[in-house]
Design brief:
Layout (H helix, E strand, L loop, with lengths): L5 E2 L16 E6 L14 H8 L6 E2 L4 E2 L5 E7 L6 H18 L4 E6 L5 H8 L3 E5 L19 H7 L3 E7 L4 H10 L2 E4 L5 H8 L6 E6 L21 H14 L2 E7 L9 H19 L4
Parallel strand pairs: 2-5, 2-6, 6-11, 7-8, 7-10, 8-9, 10-11
Antiparallel strand pairs: 1-5, 3-4
The chain binds manganese (II) ion (MN).
Manganese (II) ion binds next to loops.
Length: about 290
């Protein structure tokens, strides 16, 4: 099927399905118009897809071969340079088109900066938003832009979506106060544990939108990202949490945002690609596909 706002780009290599018959539908969002520190998230979708070439489609610890899973890749959203709101409207429209054609499809976004997650949340209308991120992203406005990457969790909270955040290690006093006022719960990277994760997400209403800002990971794994922060989580910590969430909650959509850099095969891209495979693999293994 055709989409209003997508164009062809590098695609995943293994056998792909048409979006109206796939369970997982991948789309890239090559946008970094509000990136405030290190540019390059516009290359995130291409870098992530390219990094999958280094991975076996067979996931050893799941016994699942992604080549046998119904996956589609619809290319990239055609961005509006410098305009996060117009671009995320295109994300929203594309996901709405997709869900009309294939209500069972689970959209997977490859970013691109985090501002674009709002488009997916507006389209999918989840009850809850679970995010792994170094940053609270609860600013009302940043650099005079309410749709900056630094405001995405604030905009989502204003839609009445319940939020839980993990791996946090950066924010302002105002953001912390806002979280407290709105009952948004978050776990600092220093205090993160599997038990803390489960305790917080257990009671969240479904369906859940799951967002991974790649900067949640330890900096050594993700050196090229928009706003890198020292002191993050490990790969298996995040995978374990995702597995629990998939087993116990209905997942509306998923994204891996803020992958950036200019060199193919960079560690950030490899981390994002591996996480993409684990998400799809875990959905398949838990019988959610
Ligand atoms: Mn972040």
């Amino acid at each position: 099927m055709e989409f209003l706002y997508t164009h062809g780009s590098l695609k995943l290599e293994f056998p792909l399905k048409e979006p109206d018959e796939a369970r997982f539908v991948i789309m890239g969002i090559p946008f970094d118009g509000t990136t405030s520190f290190k540019a390059g998230a516009r290359f995130g979708p291409t870098l992530t897809r390219h990094a999958t070439l280094n991975l076996e489609s067979y996931i050893l610890d799941y016994g699942i071969d992604l080549a046998e899973v119904p996956i589609a890749d619809i290319g990239d959203i055609t961005v509006v340079a410098g305009d996060p709101r117009k671009t995320l409207d295109r994300v929203r429209v594309t996901i709405e088109e997709l869900k009309r054609a294939n209500p069972r499809a689970v959209p997977i976004l490859l970013g691109g900066e985090h501002s674009q997650t709002l488009g997916a949340v507006e389209a999918l209308k989840p009850e809850s938003y679970v995010v792994f991120d170094a940053h609270l992203d609860l600013r009302d406005s940043y650099e005079d832009n309410p749709y900056s990457h630094a405001c995405v969790a604030r905009r989502i909270s204003e839609l009445g979506v319940k939020e839980a955040m993990f791996g946090i290690r950066s924010g302002t006093r105002e953001e912390v106060e806002y979280a407290e006022k709105k009952g948004i719960r978050w776990v600092h990277a220093r205090d993160y544990s599997f038990d803390a994760f489960v305790e917080l997400v257990e009671t969240l209403p479904e369906p859940v939108y799951l967002s991974i800002d790649i900067d949640v990971f330890d900096l050594s794994m993700v050196p090229t990202t928009g706003t890198p922060e020292t002191g993050g989580l490990g790969f298996w910590e995040v995978v374990e949490a995702i597995e629990w969430l998939i087993e116990n909650k209905k997942i509306a959509g998923f994204d891996i945002m803020e992958v950036a850099g200019e060199s193919l095969g960079n560690p950030t891209a490899l981390t994002g690609a591996k996480l993409l495979f684990y998400f799809i693999g875990a959905m398949e293994k838990m019988g959610k596909s």
